[in-house]
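Much of what follows relies on a compact textual record of a protein's fold. A record is reproduced here so that you can trace the correspondence yourselves:

. . .
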Amino acid sequence: MAQVNGIVVWTEGIKAELAKRLPKQRKTQRDKLAVLVATMLHVRSANLVELAAGLPRESDRWDMGYQWISRFLANDLVCCDTVMEPFAREILARLTETGEPIPLILDQTTASDRHQILMLSVRWGERALPLAWRVEETEGTIGFATQKELLAVVAGWLPADLGVVLLADRFYGTPAMIRWCRDRGWDYRLRLKSNLVARCGTTKTTTGDLALSGGYYFEAVALTGQRVTTNIGIIRDPGHAEPWIIAMSAKPGYLTTLGYADRWGIEPMFSDFKSRGFGLEQTHIQYPDRLAS
């Protein structure tokens, strides 16, 4: 009984917060979302059977709760971006008070043996806070079309005239991503793969050869046949076999190149997500759009 009472208390608190931030949200949707979130926080699982068993319902039949959750998750009116927007806007607005560019982190993690989550987070202290995400059924990297769609959503939540620096691993360090950031006036620290064709003036080489050339900082490097121009800084960490090749719009130097390290705030988040999180890989949900909810 104490457990049920705890969920009820959490549910009322979540309802009040949603009502304040999303006044146009339908009450039925708000009530259901609040009880589901409160139950998930309590049972710490995304497994639908465990969630159903933990629901504070009058009936003890877990299958009724399972059907209730399934119907709610199948509701196309439940939109993650809509729910997250007011919370994300508050975090981003508070970060503007520092006067520093806002560090956004783009990365991907495995949700199940079939699904991947592409997540855009913001660095807050030593951690990363998720702002928006997309789930797709794939074994590899979620493609650029989804990447830019996710970035565009969060870009619409940013305060006007705000500096941004996008941090991302080498799976996202592509000429297309560099061009996207450049067109919007965003700074970036994107790790590059070592096999990209690179042109420094009239010299044609690769990003890997640049990293092994002995230099640390290169300006106006044209990448691949698209000839997308960027600056590059090299990190040679004794703990890594390969140098890290970091693309940036800023003038390359020691501190600007080292700024790539800010993306490591997402590692603890994904670690928590997997080791102390909600067991998302154990969910019975099969469809990416519903898994994202």
